[in-house]
Amino acid sequence: MDAIASGRRQLADWLDALPVNYFEANPLLRSLVERASSPAEFNRMDAHLAQYGADIAGAADLVHKCSTPPNLPTLERWDAIGRRQERVRFDASYHQLGEIIYGSGVMGMTGDPAHAVLQAALVFLTAHHGEAGHTCPLACTAGLIQALQKVGHPRLQEGLLPGLLDPAYATRLHGSQFLTEVQGGCDVGANASRAVLETPETDDSPAVWRIYGEKWFCSVADSPLYLVTARPEGAAGGTKGLGLFLVPHDLPDGAKGGPLARALAHRALPQAPNPPNHFTIRRLKDKLGTRAMASGEIDWDGALAWQVGTLQNGFQTVIEVVLGTSRLYNALACAGSMQRAFYEARAFAATRTAFGRKIAHFPLVREAVAQLYTEACAALASTLDLVQLGAQGGESEAVRLGVNLNKYWTSVRNTQMQRLGIEVLGGNGTIEDFSPLPRLYRDAMVTESWEGTHNVLVAQTWRDMQRYGLHRPFLGLLQRRAEAWGDAPNAQEVRERLIVLAGEAERLAAARDENETLALRSWMDNAMVAYQALCLGELDQWRQQRGEATEAGVVAHLLALHPLRTAVAVRGQYPQ
Ligand SMILES: Cc1cc2nc3c(=O)[nH]c(=O)nc-3n(C[C@H](O)[C@H](O)[C@H](O)COP(=O)(O)OP(=O)(O)OC[C@H]3O[C@@H](n4cnc5c(N)ncnc54)[C@H](O)[C@@H]3O)c2cc1C
After folding, report:
1. Atom of ligand 1 at shortest range from CA of 218
2. From the centroid of its chain, how far is CA 219?
3. What is the pTM of this model?
C-alpha cells in the first residue's frame, strides 16, 4: 500500500473504531445507573438505554445535516397569502432527529423521582451530539413541566401536561423560557417587560394577563409555549417584582372573544395553527454554536398570557424550578459532549500513525486522551449524583449549591476538553465535516453562558454562603460521605482537601471585599474536584465490592490534574 492509501486507510479505521452504541460503550454510565436503581428497575432501564444508545449513535448524519448551512432554521413570518405566522422552518433532518429523541420517552419521565436517573442518562446520551438542536428544548420543556407540576393552576396542568409529557414528536408540546432582555441577561432584576392584568384567577382559570415589551434572547422560538418573566404594573423593582407567565404561541380558540379560560376548558391548544398571539419575532440570531436550534428576538404587543404560580413567587419559581432544572441539563449536555470528544480522540489516537508509530504511543497524546476520559467521567458522576440527590429530596440546600457549582465547572471543563480533543485530531480536528468536534466546541462556548454565566454563579454562590451558609450542608454531606469511603485509595487526600475547603469557605462567607470573588472562583474549582473525586471513588468502591473492575487511577488522575489551589494572589491591570 502506498503512503497515501495507507493514510486514508487509517482514517477509515478511525471511523470503524468509533462506538456504534453510546450506552454499551460506557461501562461507567451503566454502573452509575445500576447503582442508583433497584435490580428490577435496572433490567428495564438497561434495555431501554441500550436501544437508545444505538438509535442516537446512528443519528450522527441527521445532526450534522440539520446543524449545517443551508439546513439551519429559518424564520417564516408570513404565509403564502400574507397572514402573519411567526413560525420557524426546520430541515426534515431536524424533525427525524426529534422523532428519535422524544420517542425515547425522555420528557414523560419529568418530575418522576423513580425515573430521574434514567431520564438524565437519556439526555446525556443525546448530548454526545452536542446541542443537536434538541437538547436546549428538552431542558426548557423539563423546566416548564416541573413549574406547572409544582405551581401551575389545575386547568393549566390538565390542559398542558399531557401534551408536554407526550413521547410522540408530532403531537407533543414543548416549551421555552425567556428572561434575558437587551439591557442585560445577568441582571434579570432589570427586566422591563410589562404585564397587565386582563382577568383575575378563578377556580376555572389562571389569571390572564397581557405582556408588552421585548425579549432579546429567545431560544426554542418555535415552541408553542413560552415561559416569560415580566413585571406586573405597579410591582416592586428588581427580581422581587417579577411575575412568571406562560404565553402560548398561537391565540388559543375562544381567546378572541373572552378569557383564555374558555380555551382551556375544552382543549389546551388549537389543533390547527391559529394566528400568532400578539407578538412578532424580529429575527433569528446568527450564532456561534447551537445553530440547529432557533434563537430569536421577540416583541410583545399585548400577548395573552397565563399566570404561573403566585405573582410574588414568580422569580423564586424561576430560580428553584426552572433554572435548577436547566442547570442540571446544561451539565448533562457538557458531560455528554466531553464523552464524545473522548471517543473521537481515543479512536483517532489508536489508528493514526506519525513517525512510524500510532500516535497513542506518544506520552503527550496518551495523556490528552486520558484527561478527556477522566474529565468526562468526573462530569457524568457529579451530575448524576446531583440528579439522584435531587430526586431523593432531603438534601435540598446541599443540592442547590451543588447544582450551581456543577453547572459552572462542567461548562468550563467542556470547552477545554473540546479544545483538547481537537488538538489530538490535529488539523483534521478543525474541519467541520471530519468530526463533530468543531460543532461541539462552538456549542460549548454557548453552554458556558446559558443558565447563568460563570460570574453570576460565583456571585450566587457567595450570596448563598453569606446569607444562608449553604456551604455547610454541602461540605457536611461530602465530609460524611468521605468518612464512609474509609481507607480506599485517594480517600484520605479528599478528606484533607475538604478540611481546607471548609476553612476557606468560612473565611469567604464572612468576607465583604468584592475582590474575594477571585478566591471564591478558585474555591469553586477545588470544591468541584473534591466532589467529583468522591463520586467516582464511591462508585469504584461499589464496583470493587461486587468483584468488578475498578478505575482508581481515574480518581488519582483527576486529583493530580487539579491540585488544590488556595486564594488567587494575581490581580491584573489594564489601561482604562
Ligand atoms: C445562543 C444563546 C441563546 C440564549 N437563549 C436564551 C433564552 O432562551 N432565554 C433567556 O432568557 N436567555 C437566553 N440567553 C441569554 C443568556 O442566558 C445570557 O447571555 C446570559 O444570561 C448572560 O447575559 P448577557 O449575555 O446579557 O451578559 P451581561 O449580563 O451583559 O454580562 C456580560 C459580562 O458581565 C459579567 N457580569 C455580569 N454581572 C456580573 C457580576 N455581578 N459580577 C461579575 N461579572 C458580572 C458576565 O458574567 C458576563 O461575562 C441565550 C444566550 C445565548 C448565547
Report:
1. 8
2. 13
3. 0.96
CA 345 to ligand 1 center in whole angstroms: 31
Reduce the DSSP state of residue 193 to 3 states and report it.
coil
The number of domains in the chain is: 2
CATH code assigned at 300? 2.40.110.20
The pLDDT tens digits for 204-243 are: 999 999 999 999 999 999 999 999 999 999 999 999 999 9
Q: Which residues line ligand 1 (CB under 6 A)?
A: 176-180, 184-187, 217-219, 287, 290, 295, 446, 449-450, 453, 455-456, 459
Residue 238 lies in a domain: yes
Last residue of a domain, one of 255, 289, 315: 315
Minimum-distance ligand 1 atom for the alpha carbon of 452:
21
- CB 537 within 8 Å of CB 525: no
137-158, pLDDT tens digit by residue?
999 999 999 999 999 999 999 9
pLDDT digits (tens, 9 = 90+) for 70-100: 999 999 999 899 989 999 999 999 999 999 9
SS (H, E, C) 346-392: HHHHHHCEECCEEHHHCHHHHHHHHHHHHHHHHHHHHHHHHHHHHHH
Beta bridge partners of 244: 229
Domain that holds residue 500: 455-561
Q: Is residue 13 part of a domain?
A: no
Residue 455 sits at the vertex; the CA angle it makes with 451 and 457, to the nearest 5 degrees, is 50
157 found inside a domain? no
Whether 346 maps to a domain, the answer reads no
